[in-house]
From TrEMBL:
Membrane-topology annotation of the record: Multi-pass membrane protein
Keyword entries, A-Z: Cell membrane, G-protein coupled receptor, Membrane, Olfaction, Receptor, Sensory transduction, Transducer, Transmembrane, Transmembrane helix
GO molecular function: G protein-coupled receptor activity; olfactory receptor activity
Entry's Gene Ontology cellular component terms: plasma membrane
Name of the protein: Olfactory receptor
Taxonomy of the source species: Eukaryota, Metazoa, Chordata, Craniata, Vertebrata
Superkingdom in the source lineage: Eukaryota
Protein family: Belongs to the G-protein coupled receptor 1 family.
Length: 314
C-alpha cells in the first residue's frame, strides 16, 4: 500500500459553496446549528440521567440517540465549518479514511437505534402487559450493544472497500466530507464492482431499515384503534415524533445510497440534512412532543436556574 502514499497523500474538498460571501454567511449558520446540536443533545442526556428516566427503555435508547447524534455530526461538522473560512480545504489520506469510518459507524448505529426505538414503541403499545418483561434492563443493554456492533461492522466494510485503492490524482473531492462514493470517483482503478458492493451494503441498510420502520409504525398506528382516547393521544404524539425523525433522516440517505454510481451536485446539500439538520432536530422533536421529558426538564432546570420561580413552573 506504499505506492498510494507516493501518489496522493491527501485530498482537497470542493466544499459546499464556491462563493466567498455565501461561505461566510454559512459559517455563522452552521456554527449556530452545531452549537444547537451539542447543547440540545447534552441537555437531553443530562435530563434523562438526572431525572432518573434511564430506567425506562424509551429514554435509555433516546439517551443513546442523543449521544450518537453528537458523535455523528462531530465527524463532519467542525471540519466543514472551519473549511468555510479557508481557501484550501485539505484532508490527509488517514483523516479521510477516519471520516468514512466515523460517518458510517455513527450513521449506521443511529439507523439501528431508530429501529430499536420503533420496536420499543411497538412492544409498549401492542403488548403493554408484557412490556416490562420483554424490555427488561439486561435485554435493553444487549440490544444497545448490538446496535453499536452492527454500526461498527457496517463501517469496517465501507472502509475496507476504499482503503486499499490507488489514487494518482486528481485529488479534489466534490463534497465537504469523505464518503465512499466521491472517493471512488478519484481512484485510478476500475471501481465498478466496489461501487456495486457499496450500493448493495449502504443501500440495503438504508432502504431496508426505512421500509421496516414505515411498516412498524403502520402496525402501531393500526393497533391504536383499540386504545382509549387518552392512550391513543399519548401514543400518537410519541410515534408522530419518531416518524418525523425517520422521514427527515432516511429520505436523504435513501436518495444518496440507493442508486448506481452517479454523483449529483445536489448530493452535498442532501448530505447536510442527515449530517447536520437531523442531529439538530432530534432533540427538538423528541422533547417538544414529549410531556415526560418536558416535565423532567422543568423540575430539574426550573429548580436549579430559577429557584422559587421553578416551583411555579410546575
Amino acid at each position: 500500500s506504499m505506492e498510494k502514499i507516493d501518489n496522493v497523500t491527501g485530498f482537497i474538498f470542493r466544499g459546499l459553496f464556491q462563493n466567498r460571501e455565501v461561505e461566510e454567511v454559512s459559517f455563522v449558520a452552521f456554527s449556530f446549528f452545531y452549537t444547537v446540536i451539542l447543547l440540545g443533545n447534552l441537555l437531553i442526556m443530562l435530563t434523562i440521567f438526572m431525572g432518573n428516566l434511564l430506567k425506562t427503555p424509551m429514554y435509555f435508547f433516546l439517551n443513546s440517540l442523543s449521544f450518537v447524534d453528537i458523535c455523528f455530526s462531530s465527524v463532519t461538522a467542525p471540519k466543514m465549518i472551519v473549511d468555510l473560512l479557508v481557501e484550501n480545504k485539505t484532508i490527509s489520506f488517514e483523516g479521510c479514511m477516519l471520516q468514512v469510518f466515523g460517518v458510517h459507524f455513527f450513521g449506521g448505529t443511529e439507523i439501528f437505534i431508530l429501529i430499536v426505538m420503533a420496536y420499543d414503541r411497538y412492544v409498549a403499545i401492542c403488548k403493554p402487559l408484557h412490556y416490562v418483561t420483554i424490555m427488561d434492563r439486561e435485554r435493553c443493554s444487549k440490544i444497545l450493544l448490538g446496535t453499536w456492533v452492527s454500526g461498527f461492522f457496517h463501517s469496517i466494510i465501507q472502509v475496507a472497500l476504499v482503503v486499499h485503492l490507488t489514487f494518482c490524482g486528481p485529488n479534489e473531492i466534490d463534497h465537504y466530507f469523505c464518503d465512499v462514493r466521491p472517493i471512488l470517483k478519484l481512484a485510478c482503478t476500475n471501481t465498478y464492482i466496489i461501487s456495486a458492493i457499496v450500493t448493495a451494503n449502504s443501500g440495503t441498510i438504508t432502504l431496508g431499515s426505512f421500509v421496516f420502520l414505515l411498516i412498524s409504525y403502520s402496525v402501531i398506528l393500526v393497533s391504536l384503534r383499540k386504545q382509549s382516547a387518552e392512550g391513543r393521544r399519548k401514543a400518537l404524539s410519541t410515534c408522530g415524533a419518531h416518524i418525523a425523525v425517520v422521514i427527515i433522516f432516511f429520505g436523504p440517505c435513501v436518495f444518496t445510497y440507493m442508486r448506481p454510481n452517479v454523483t449529483f451536485s445536489e448530493d452535498k446539500m442532501v448530505a447536510v440534512f442527515y449530517t447536520i439538520i437531523t442531529p439538530m432536530l432530534n432533540p427538538m422533536i423528541y422533547t417538544l412532543r414529549n410531556a415526560e421529558v418536558k416535565n423532567a426538564m422543568k423540575k430539574l432546570w426550573g429548580k436549579r436556574c430559577f429557584g422559587p420561580v421553578g416551583n411555579i413552573l410546575e
